[in-house]
Amino acid sequence: MIEASAIRRSASAMRTALVGQQTICFSSRKLSGPAPGVGRVIERVERDGREFEFTWDDGLVLHTSLRRSGSWDLYRVGDRWRRKHSDAAALIESEDWVAVCFDAAEVETYRREPIDRHPSRGRVGPDLSDPDVDREIVVEAILHHSDPSTRIREALLDPRVVRGLGNVYAAEALWATRLSPWARVGDIARSDLIMLVNYASRILNEHLNALGDDGFVNLVPFEVYGRNGHVCNRCGDSIEVTNTPPDNRPLYWCPKCQTRLDWRLLDDTPPGGAQPS
Ligand SMILES: [Zn+2]
């Protein structure tokens, strides 16, 4: 049996190595559910006892449940594994690291959806990872959102408004347009939304395409995602991170230069009369 302390150490090592990294390869011989996409960024690694969960930026979650002899091992790319490759139940590879799962009782994926709470439930937004998608539909869905006090970042992560964008590219696009993540959709002009959606679509597809068949990565680095504590390349202030409800996904932003339409700085009545929380 693998000791609890070793399991804890492996979770923390994988968190350090993989969070914020793009997935170059995923494979599993016993996966139930859709496979994590090549190019998608790993956003969280969580452990509860022998259950491990990896969350990608598009909301896909990989859940593995380890048997008593099971483990998640972390290797540098090219290192020799302590067990045979054919024993691996699942494998996640980033540019520098390979995480390998042995002796899993379950390997499954599911999608973490936001709480079903507005009238557009059941509707599915266009997929921005498709370069030919009609981006105007996304702009219209945000402009005519049923709740104008919804924060823009929340709208960008809502699959009923838009799919494929994910937390990473929502953060990057908001930074690029200087919009506060707390801006309410009812306050944002159409021209700003067009800029936001076009930029989001462009960087998302650039990043997804940057991973060639040979796994070669040549990426423009992120401006805010995973850069908390680092200097903002635009204003020199410090990038911050906070966990936001309802699902506590990390929000990265620059509090100095990314303040456009932040309702906390505006002295007006919230759109629709609702008090933002
Ligand atoms: Zn800044």
3D architecture notes:
With 277 residues, the protein is of the alpha+beta class. The chain has two domains: 4-111, N-terminal domain of MutM-like DNA repair proteins (Alpha-Beta Barrel), CATH 3.20.190; 135-273, Helicase, Ruva Protein, domain 3 (Orthogonal Bundle). Helices cover 22% and strands 23% of the residues. It is built from five helices and eight strands. The protein has helices at 4-18, 135-143, 152-156, 166-176, 190-209; strands spanning 25-28, 42-48, 51-56, 60-76, 88-93, 97-111, 240-244, 249-253. The strands form two sheets. Strands 1-5-6-4-3-2 form a six-stranded antiparallel β-sheet, sandwiched between helices. It has a two-stranded antiparallel sheet with strand order 7-8. Strand 3 and strand 4 (60-76) form a beta hairpin. Helix 2 packs across helix 5 and helix 4 (166-176) crosses helix 5. The chain is elongated. Bound molecules: zinc ion (ZN).
> Could you please say which CATH topology of the largest domain applies here?
Helicase, Ruva Protein, domain 3
Query: CA-to-CA gap between the ends?
Result: 47 Å
Bound molecules: zinc ion
Please state the second-level CATH architecture of the largest domain.
Orthogonal Bundle
- Going by helix content, strand content and strand pairing, the class is alpha+beta
In which range does the helix fraction lie? Answer: 10-25%
Helix-strand string: HEEEEEEHHHHEE
Which descriptor suits the 3D outline? elongated
Strand arrangement in the largest pleated sheet: 1-5-6-4-3-2
- The CATH class assignment of the largest domain is Mainly Alpha
Number of domains: 2
Number of helices: 5
Strand content: 15-25%
Rg:
20 Å
* Average residue-wise pLDDT: 86
What is the number of strand segments? 8
